[in-house]
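Reviewer 2 asked us to include a model.

Predict the structure of this chain.
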Amino acid sequence: MSKQSELTRGALISFVNKMDEKIIDVQPEGFNNTIRWHVGHLLVSAEGLMFGYPEHSNNIPESYHAMFKTGSKPSDWGNAEVPTLSALIESLEKQAVRLNELSEEFLAEKLPFQFPVGNPQTYGEMFEFVMFHEAYHLGQMKAMNVITKR
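Predicted model (structure tokens):
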């Protein structure tokens, strides 16, 4: 993991660790999701893009996929068992360790799929997108936090 990725994932975990449980499921006007959804989405996205979740990775529960994949939303969760914020944070921390352990050889490998955003060709380039994605969603969560606290 690069210094930039440590900074990005560290900022995400630090922010989420300070969240008030009372507001993580509030969906402010103008936003499509909640802070809990964003946290789960980042976990699921990184796991899918870097480790082949849910088909090739069992590091996080398979049920997270439907809840947090792109296009999902909390209003679709119904009676599903929603993971606690602490469970999501713990998974993010464990995932950070696995991301840090990715070898240079793996990062140099060509992707076995085509990705529509930025046209990454290798896992290393995909990892750069994952960090961009985390920073983007962290900004969304910070905005939601400010609006919700008003």
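The helical segments are 3-17, 35-51, 63-68, 85-100, 104-108, 123-149. The chain has a mean pLDDT of 94. We have added this to the supplementary material.
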